[in-house]
Specification:
The structure is a homodimer of 374-residue chains.
Chain A lengths: L4 E3 L6 E3 L14 E3 L6 H6 L29 E6 L2 E7 L9 H14 L4 E5 L3 H13 L2 E7 L4 H9 L3 E5 L3 H11 L4 E2 L6 H7 L1 H9 L7 E5 L4 H15 L8 E7 L4 H6 L28 H10 L4 E4 L1 H13 L6 H16 L6 E5 L15
Parallel strand pairs in A: 5-13, 6-7, 6-9, 7-8, 10-11, 10-13, 11-12
Antiparallel strand pairs in A: 1-2, 1-3, 4-5
Chain lengths: 374, 374
C-alpha cells in the first residue's frame, strides 16, 4: 500500500489512503489509486475465499481483516433461452448478498483506521452487510433504509445489533439523511466509499481464476448504484495493468425499465448531468436507484468495454424469477432482473463467450415476493 | 461402486446398491456397504465443493451429478464462553441449510437409478433441499411437512415447483403420511435413505482437509433425526478405515430439553425401544423429533466415540441466538441450539481440541424468530 492515495478526478485533489474520508474537500467523489499484486501460485494454495487475492486488497495488516471466510462463490453452468451461460452464485455470501464483498474489505479498512462507529444507507442488502461485518469487528453501526425495505432485511440489521433508521419517502431521502449523519460519523457507503469497490472487485478476480486464469467474453450484471459494475471494471483493469489479461470483457449493465437512469444516461453520451427519469414501482428493489452518485463511471465502464445498458420489464423479471425457481435456485427479484437481462441480451446480440451473469441476493431476503406461482 | 450393497443389520438381508429401495423386505433400516477411496493430491486440485471427494461418494457416473457447486463451507474461528472454537458455516449452502449435503448426493443417485418422482417428509429444511435438487434434476417432487413449519421454508418448497402437503398434527403424523405415499413413489428420506447420509458425511471430509488432513478432537452437532451425527460418524470411520486417521473424534449430540429422546436413550444403555418422552414447544424446530428412526445408530455413534447427548434449555438457545447475532452471524434457532450446546459442553467438560461446532440453517429461514432483541 506504499504510495496509495485517495484521488478526486473532478477537482484534482489528492489525499493519503489512510485519511478517514469518503469525499474530497470539494465534495466530489474519490477513487483509490494504488498498485495491487497477483501471485497465482500463492493464490492457489490459499483457502477458497476472496481474501486469497491478499496482495490485491488494500488492507495493510492481516490482523485487521474482518471476515467470515466469504467469497469464491460457485460458478454454476446453466442454459438460458437455449444458450449456455455461467451464473455466479453470489447470493450464497454469509448475509445473503454479494454486498459482503464490499463490506469485508471496507470494514477491515475501517478497523485499520481505528474507526469506532460507522453510518450507512441502503435499499437493504448493503445495510445488512455493513451491520453484520461491523458487529464482527466490534464497530458501532447505524443504518438508514427506506421505510419500504423488505422486512427480513430489517430483521437482519437489528439482529446484528445495528441501530436502524427507517426513513419515509424515497431512496434518495434516505441517502440525504445518512449523508447528514455522515458529517459526524465515518460514512461506510457502498456508493461513495472507494474501499467498498475494492471489495466488489474480487468478483473479477474469482472469475479470472475460475475460468483458468482467463477473462469471460461478456459479463451481464445488475446495476443500481453500480457497485458490482464498478468493482468488476476495477478488478479486470487491475489484472490488465498487471499483465495477466490482454483485453477487457464486455460489461452489460441491467436495469429495471421502471427505474433506469443509467439507461437514459447511456443514450445521451454528451450529458453532463444525470437525466431525470420517470419512476415506477419495481420488484427489483435492490436496483431501484433514481440517482446513482457514480453514474458517470458506471456508464463509462459499460461504454468503453463495448457493452450496453439493458433494460427489462417487470414481467421479464418475474418470468426469470419463476424460471430460476424451477431450476432449484432461490434468489430475490433484484437478482432475477440480471437473469432476465442476460436472456434478453443474448437473444438480441451476438455475445462474445464465455458469458457470465450473477445472482446477487438470496430469495430468503424477501420470500413474500417469490409467490404466488402461476 | 463395485461390490456395493444395501444391508439390513437387523434382519441380515442384502440388496444391490442399485435397487431403488429405502428399507429391507422386513421393513427394517438399510445401510450402504461399499469401499470409498481418497486421493488427497486429486482432491486438492478440484473446485472447492463437496464433490471434490469424488471417489468417496457412491454415485457411479459424473453425468448423473446434480449440483450447484455446494459445500466446502468456511470454518470460522470464534470464541465462545472464553474458549476458542471453530464454527463450520453450513448455513451457507444454496438452500440455506446443511441438508443440501445429503440432497445433492441422494438426488444424484436417484437420477442414476432413473427415478422420475420422489416423496419426502421434513420439519422444513430437508424438504427444501430435496425440492430444489429435484427441480435441478427434473425429477417430480412431493414434500410432506407439519402445518406448523416456518413460512419461508414453505415458500422455498413451492417456489421450486414441488407439490407441498401440509399435514396437521405432529412431526410423526407427517412422517406416517409420507411413508404411506412412499409405497408408490421413491422415498427420498433423509432419515431412511442411506444415500442421504453418504452426502452428509462430506462434513467429515471437509473438516479433515480444512484441519490439514487431521481430525478435530471434539465435534458438537445438533441432533434431531441425526443425519449430521450419522454422516459425520460414517465419514470419519471411512477415513479411519482408509488409513488416513488413527482415531475418531469425540461426537457430542445436542438436543433441546423440550424434545430430547436421544438424551433419554443415551441414559438407558440397555433399552431396546426408544424411551417415550414428554414434549414441549421449542424454538429449535429442526431438531424437534420425538421418534428419530435411526436412534440406535445415533446413540451408538455418540457412545463409542466417548461423547454425550447434551441438552439445552430454551433460554440457552435464545441466548446463543443473540450471541451469534452480535457476532454478525445470521442463523436459525435450531442452529443456535448447537452453539448453546457447545458452550455448555465446554463449560462442563475438559474437551479434546480442536473443538468444532456447526451452524446448520440460515437465519433468513425464520426471520420472525430472530427478534425481539432484548
Amino acid at each position: 500500500m506504499n504510495g496509495a492515495a485517495l484521488v478526486c478526478a473532478a477537482a484534482g485533489e489528492r489525499y493519503g489512503a489512510d485519511e478517514p474520508r469518503w469525499r474530497g474537500d470539494s465534495g466530489e467523489l474519490l477513487d483509490l489509486e494504488w498498485t495491487p499484486a497477483f501471485f497465482p501460485e500463492r493464490i492457489r494454495q490459499r483457502s477458497p475465499n476472496l481474501w486469497r487475492y491478499r496482495e490485491a486488497i488494500p488492507v495493510r495488516e492481516d490482523r485487521n481483516i474482518v471476515s467470515f471466510g466469504e467469497g469464491f462463490t460457485p460458478l454454476f453452468p446453466a442454459t438460458l433461452a437455449g444458450q449456455k451461460i455461467l451464473i455466479k452464485l453470489d447470493h450464497l455470501f454469509p448475509t445473503g448478498s454479494y454486498k459482503d464483498r464490499g463490506a469485508t474489505v471496507l470494514i477491515s479498512k475501517a478497523r485499520e483506521l481505528g474507526i469506532r462507529a460507522v453510518v450507512q444507507d441502503s435499499s437493504g442488502n448493503a445495510g445488512v452487510s455493513i451491520a453484520c461485518y461491523s458487529a464482527l469487528a466490534g464497530i458501532r453501526c447505524e443504518i438508514f433504509v427506506p421505510a419500504s425495505t423488505s422486512p427480513a432485511k430489517l430483521v437482519q440489521i437489528r439482529h446484528a445489533g445495528a441501530t436502524l433508521r427507517e426513513i419515509p419517502g424515497s431512496r434518495e431521502d434516505t441517502a440525504r439523511a445518512a449523508r447528514k449523519r455522515a458529517e459526524e460519523v465515518y460514512y461506510a457507503s457502498h456508493c461513495w466509499n472507494p474501499f467498498f469497490h475494492h471489495g466488489t472487485k474480487t468478483f473479477a478476480f474469482e472469475l479470472w481464476e475460475q475460468l483458468s486464469w482467463r477473462a469471460p467474453g461478456t459479463i451481464i450484471l445488475p446495476a443500481g448504484n453500480g457497485t458490482l459494475v464498478l468493482g468488476t471494471w476495477i478488478g479486470f483493469r487491475e489484472l490488465m495493468e498487471a499483465g495477466f489479461l490482454d483485453r477487457m470483457p464486455v460489461i452489460v449493465a441491467v436495469q429495471a425499465s421502471a427505474c433506469a437512469p443509467l439507461a437514459a444516461a447511456f443514450l445521451q453520451p454528451s450529458a453532463h448531468t444525470l437525466p431525470a427519469i420517470e419512476l415506477h414501482p419495481t420488484a427489483a428493489e435492490g436496483i431501484a436507484i433514481a440517482e446513482p452518485v457514480r453514474w458517470k463511471g458506471i456508464v463509462q465502464a459499460v461504454r468503453e468495454t463495448g457493452g450496453i445498458v439493458q433494460t427489462v420489464e417487470e414481467a421479464e423479471i418475474l418470468g426469470a424469477l419463476r424460471e430460476t425457481g424451477a431450476m432449484g435456485l432461490c434468489i430475490e427479484p433484484t437478482a432475477a432482473a440480471a437473469v432476465a437481462g442476460a436472456k434478453k441480451y443474448l437473444a438480441q446480440n451476438d455475445a462474445v463467450g464465455p458469458v457470465v451473469t450473477v445472482v446477487t441476493g438470496h430469495g430468503l431476503k424477501s420470500p413474500e415476493k417469490l409467490l404466488p406461482h402461476p
